Amino acid sequence: MGHREDLLEGAKRCLLQKGFTRTTARDIVKESGTNLASIGYHYGSKDALLARAYVALVEEMGDAFDGGGLDDTEPGSLERFERAWSNIIATMKEPGSLWRLSMEVLALGDRLPEVRDHLAAAQREAGRGLIPLLMGGREEEVSDETADTLGMFYVTLMTGLIAQWTFDPRTAPDAGQLTAGLRRVVEGIGNS
C-alpha cells in the first residue's frame, strides 16, 4: 500500500478506537506508519481524511446487511424488509459498533463544515445502496429521484434506529416491531 491507503486504513482504526474528536493527526500517523505532511498532501486535512475513513467504514458495513437469507425473499416484501432490518440491527449490537461513531459524527456536523459537506453528499449514495437491499435490483439502476425519496426514507429510518440503539438498546425496536409498524402504516393508507 502507498501512503494514501495507509493513512485511510490508519484513520479507520483510529476512528473505531478513539472516535472522531479524540483522534489526532499524530494518532493517525502513528497508526499508519506515515508522516504528518502526508495527511495534507493526500487528503488536505485531518478532518477530510477522517470523513473519508468514516464513509469507507460505512461502505464496508454494507456487506453485513445482505447476509441472512435475503435471496429467498421477494424484493419489496414485508418479509424482506424484516430480514434486511434484522441484519442491519445485528450490526448495531456488536461491541465497538461503527454506529456509535455515527452519532458522534452527526452531533459534530455544524462544527465541522468540511466533514458535514462530505458526509451530506454521501447520504444520497447510502440511500441508493439501501434500495436494492430492500427492493431488489442493482444500485447503478437506482435513479437520483428514487435515491432522493425512497433512499432518503431508508436513511432516515436507519439514522433513527442508530440513535435509539445508541441511546438505549434495551428499548430500541427490533426488525419485527419495525415491520409491524410499517404494516400498520400501509393498512392505514389503504383505509383512507
Please describe what this structure looks like.
The protein has 192 residues and is mostly helical. The protein has nine helices and no strands. The mean pLDDT is 88.
List keywords for this structure.
192 residues, mainly alpha, elongated
SSE arrangement:
Blueprint: H1 3-18, H2 25-32, H3 36-43, H4 46-65, H5 78-93, H6 98-108, H7 113-135, H8 144-167, H9 175-190
Helix pairs in contact: 1-2, 1-4, 4-7, 5-9, 7-8
Which structural class matches the secondary elements? mainly alpha
**Counted beta strands:** 0
User: Which H/E pattern describes the elements?
Assistant: HHHHHHHHH
How confident overall, as mean pLDDT? Answer: 88
Beginning-to-end CA distance, first to last residue = 59 Å
Question: What's this entry about, in short?
Answer:
This protein is mainly α. Helix 4 runs parallel beside helix 7 (113-135), helix 5 (78-93) packs antiparallel against helix 9 (175-190) and helix 7 packs across helix 8.
